[in-house]
């Protein structure tokens, strides 16, 4: 069964917001065996919405629409669909009751504008919105299903989880879709491709291999589609093993779709060891990544974000003369930072970073993107200098990934 | 002039990666006056790519394609386009030279697989890739322009900035597109819509108003298109002023498209005051947001991420008996945390957070999502309890936005 996503709203087309709805929906739908043929974003323009919906319904069995359901004038999804299906709107008192109950709970006043939220398409079934005022709608039309939801991410997620996903599972006999990801570190995409060309050539049509490179990591994703879960699973595991035999062990970060912070989390939990971080140029981003992992409090003790000289000296024990002589962006400083945090926070491992994230702060001999990273552990201290390209956020992200990989290698050292 | 974006690759359709390329490209293109009619994501499937490209070329003057240009077997963009345009591939020695030079610089070996990168469409012009091996291509066909770029974000960005955007500016007489955003805080979308209905009704066709709600913030975005920049600008400023007169001052966060961390950054710079943060459940995310702003080192001194009891006690001065009696997730603890960080780091303002981000950690009387937030400043300490819905990352994000808004209100207090 194939579905398409249609996102309505100018904000995506002018680059004001990232389409996080699409990634979430695609992931959830894939998980239950619905594959997505196309994702389309169009503006709040009636004719264009109709053209895109019509094209989507020609290709797919189910079209999920988000956006344009609010009570404001730029929200034209309902009137557009009313024209497309040639049906009117009906007033659903249950929506008003639902809104009143929810709004009163939150202490917000009920306004006349909310009445409009109760107007739903005559050919639709209500999908109650537990996180906002605009309900979703489920429409069956010429053997196809059209699902409308608000564009606010947590409202859409609530409606999908509570109503849409369960209903799709009941109404369709869904095939088995399995994805298996191998995370490789430190090998360029083309080198990898050369290494595993023979295995790739031998793979059957119902299993596809994709290369997903990003910042020194390449994720190899096997995607299989089939009827029998066990047969498909074992066939995919077989190809994964063949690939794993070829790639050097040191370059394999994980044999499941884990992020770097999840990889080090597993390693630290398994070895019952702890981590602390002293961040300067990364400003808390490494700590944030580490703490997005549920259960990270088992191994992550805490961090010091030492943005000023004062904090580096007073709270990390960096020597004033080190800062004077070598500057904050130096191997000497990053070393003292990692020693200081590991000692103060009494952990098995520690990370430190100091660099110039930009756009300001560069000097004659220290360009924007220059970063020193250190990891301390039972085997002593390792340091590394990188020069990261790109904007401030790129420097922060790249530094964080290198730091987490340095930590991974230190944990794995015999 | 209208453009469309066409993203090729399964990873977006299965929800494995967020389409950050689209938002970046849309923003940059809008900035130079190119409006985006549609953004389409399709899989690595030849027929579907051709269908989507054909549809896009029917609607737009320029189609920008990303993805599927790598040297691996899942990269089929070049062969697909070769069929669509009915042209062959030509070998460009300049690409090989360019790759060799770049790869040698980075200490990576040149491989036979790289030869494929030099094969470009016969009807195309090379767009050199300074950050990777797959070059971009610029194709002119039946009065339309097709631009192909690799899907790796920083490679695409480099090609866009260096070649694509300048070339588009030279080849087209671009209209003026202006966006003006007002950030409102603490008013529901429907209440806002009611308030400013009259202004909205009076706006001309070439100026549109959009409501972009997210977590208690609603951004009002005016988008205007015209020929004369000054006339359009002044007309938009006029409507913005009318709206600003209606909305209560306290609910206006900014009169330009600023993120909460940028709003507080401006306020702190203007008042020459400083900030420190003590984070528990937010794990460094508030510090990360604050330090994504260039120049934040002028007011941000540093943070302590106090994930464990030990750090809360030793480094923030939280009393052991407070933790015993009330627990870490309590008003008493968040208050001692904010006092401790402000005193230790000697700042004008401080933020602290402590809560249960989930999915574990809930108790009978403390559910997942329960968070205490405190802000300390010249007017003393304010605290707030919230119960954030959703997953771990939602709790972290919501807490961070509330904390930054509490800080904003404290800075603005007379």
Molecular structure report:
- 2 copies of one chain form a homodimer.
- With 414 residues, chain A is of the alpha/beta class.
- In chain A, helix 3 crosses helix 4 (77-85).
- The first copy, chain A, has 3 domains: 2-171, 3-Layer(aba) Sandwich (Molybdenum Cofactor Biosythetic Enzyme, Chain A), CATH 3.40.980; 176-254, Alpha-Beta Plaits (2-Layer Sandwich); 260-412, CinA-like (Maf protein).
- Chain A starts with a strand and ends with a helix.
- The first copy, chain A, has helices spanning 10-13, 20-31, 46-59, 77-85, 93-105, 153-171, 189-195, 197-202, 229-246, 260-271, 285-291, 309-316, 320-326, 331-345, 392-412, and strands at residues 2-8, 35-42, 62-66, 89-91, 119-121, 124-127, 136-141, 144-149, 176-185, 207-214, 217-226, 252-254, 275-279, 300-306, 349-355, 370-377, 380-387.
- In chain A, the strands form 4 sheets. The first copy, chain A, has a 6-stranded mixed β-sheet with strand order 2-1-3-8-7-6, sandwiched between helices. In chain A, strands 14-13-15-16-17 form a 5-stranded mixed β-sheet, sandwiched between helices. Chain A has a 4-stranded antiparallel β-sheet with strand order 10-11-9-12, with helices on one face.
- At the A-B interface, helix 1, helix 2, strand 2, helix 3 and helix 6 of A face helix 1, helix 2, strand 2, helix 3 and helix 6 of B.
- Strand 14 (300-306) of chain A pairs antiparallel with strand 14 of chain B.
Write the layout of secondary structure elements.
Two copies of one chain form a homodimer.
Chain A: E1 2-8, H1 10-13, H2 20-31, E2 35-42, H3 46-59, E3 62-66, H4 77-85, E4 89-91, H5 93-105, E5 119-121, E6 124-127, E7 136-141, E8 144-149, H6 153-171, E9 176-185, H7 189-195, H8 197-202, E10 207-214, E11 217-226, H9 229-246, E12 252-254, H10 260-271, E13 275-279, H11 285-291, E14 300-306, H12 309-316, H13 320-326, H14 331-345, E15 349-355, E16 370-377, E17 380-387, H15 392-412
Parallel strand pairs in A: 1-2, 1-3, 3-8, 13-14, 13-15
Antiparallel strand pairs in A: 4-5, 6-7, 7-8, 9-11, 9-12, 10-11, 15-16, 16-17
